[in-house]
Design goal:
By secondary structure, this protein is of the alpha+beta class. It has helices spanning 2-40, 45-48, 68-81, and strands at residues 56-59, 62-65, 82-89, 94-97, 102-115, 120-134, 137-147.
């Protein structure tokens, strides 16, 4: 009985270490995404979104990209419409480890975009997505963005 209890304790300790490792890897991935988007613009999204049939992205209650092919086309269009873009995650970034290769990433975000005509858009909201480790690197398997509604004026 003691041997079984010891084995279970060791297994739990190993799982806890693995969970902490995955959590740190996904947080590092999130920082990489923000850096790449800020430095390279919207075209950097393509390498961070999974290029698989499972990928989709929703925003504001609508399916924006139902699959990877529409994502590629949409990103190409964005690169013509948006030049610089700055993405910052909030200090509330959360990772919920599901398996050694899947985790939910969630965070407030702040984004500043400048259109090719020079119009500046500042947006704050919340992001949730499932990240997946494939071929030794993390990618976003699916994503949802919600823009925070403006605060109504005080009467």
């Amino acid at each position: 009985m003691r041997l079984i209890a010891l084995s279970l304790m060791l297994l739990l300790a190993a799982c806890s270490r693995r969970t902490a490792t995955v959590e740190e890897e996904v947080k590092a991935f999130a920082r990489l995404v923000a850096r790449d988007i800020t430095q390279e613009g919207p075209s950097a999204w393509r390498r961070h979104f999974a290029d698989t049939p499972a990928f989709f992205m929703a925003a504001e209650g609508r399916m924006v990209f139902p699959d990877s092919a529409s994502t590629t086309a949409g990103i190409q269009q964005l690169t013509r419409m948006i030049k610089p873009i700055e993405l910052q995650w909030g200090d509330d970034l959360r990772v919920d480890v599901l398996t050694a290769d899947l985790a939910v990433l969630a965070s407030k975000y702040h984004e500043v975009r400048v259109s090719s005509e020079g119009a500046r858009v500042v947006e704050d909201g919340y992001f949730t997505g499932v990240t997946e480790r494939r071929d030794g690197r993390w990618q976003i398997r699916n994503a949802h963005w919600s823009v925070a509604a403006p605060t109504p004026p005080v009467p």
